[in-house]
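hey so u asked for the seq, here:
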Amino acid sequence: MTTLAREAAEPASGSRDRLRILCLTSIFPNALQPNKGIYNWKHCRNLSHHADVRVISPIAWPDDWRARRRGLGRLANHRLQSWNGVEVFYPRFLYTPGLLRGTYGTCLKWSLAPLVRSQIAEFQPDIIYGCWAYPDGWAAWKLARQHRLPVAVKVHGSDLLLIDDQPARKRMTSDMLTDLDATSVVSNDLRNCAIRLGAPAERVHLIYEGTDFELFYPGNRQEARQKLGLTSTGKRLLFVGNLLPVKAIHVLIEACSRLLAEGIPFEADLIGEGPLRTQLEQQIAQLGLTEHVRLRGRVLQSAVPDWYRAADLVVLSSVSEGVPNVLVEAAACGTPFVSTDVGGISEIANLSPGPLVPAGDPAALAAAIKEKLLNSEQAASQINRAAIVSTQHCAAETIGLFQQIIASHQAQTTSQSS
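ran it, structure tokens below
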């Protein structure tokens, strides 16, 4: 990943016959968090092959403050920039951290209203596209309706699956889903969840997240290990993700302890950062796993494929997921996986055949890891890479959906004015 281009980008110059998409999402890379929401950056980049795309990615004011303290300068401003080929604005998001979460959508709408208004006048988008349900998608929905534009929102997983204990967020998400022109989901499990929350079934569209085959492809394991400075022999496990409670990494570490107790030789690499790092370090030390389980921290996206190729097995112990990119990317690199049976994971289990395990069960997870680890070559030979959807296919399906929405909106507007 290259650094953020500081120079202002030129206004969109595509011909008016090209679709124009104004995307609103806070889950997007920036100078402080260059790995944040890379999947959204890739998605927008691929959409830009078919349409003119601009992204509005709000920066929470505490993040802007942290960036200044680190000497990165001011992140939030209303100047059009370029992040690796995608035009993006980074306006400031003003809100009260940790308080009155039910007001976050309204705060985001107020924070973005002037910029959205100016972009509708200048960029003249055909559709507003929110990526993440609340508050991003909710604000996109409200602003689109205010300006009488069609609106679609893409949901990813926990933005719908983990809202039962947040009544205000759940209510506002439900209100949005009932009125959107389209909801894009990345799994059948999420589709069912969106419908339960009030989305009309005919407006919920399953579009699986695409994988970049130019980045994720099989390679030589020993070469990958040498490149990463890892030992060339022995079995390696890999976890990739944020160090968050939803990932249940403590269960994976407990499973590793059980494997060691059974005399299974291995090393495990945990890639990612998050608030649980100190707690996980303590657990690793307490279980005597310091020489076997290592927290590698955050790595550049360009290096992640080599970590997949260096591993014998990728493991996911989450308690909630949509369709995890991690597992699909691992399969694209020719590496088998073991995972819990949550969310939409069963929909991609055919990529790396083998039973999924119950969430929160370290014994079952350890048994599944042991079986595949001891038969890793056979497990790798069973990977169904041909079933993986490309990023280009995902973008083309999304563009097709937008064209339908826009045509329907225009027909409805014409009918109301006649």
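The chain has two domains: 19-210+391-417, 221-387. Confidence is low (pLDDT under 50) at residues 1-15.
lmk if thats what u needed
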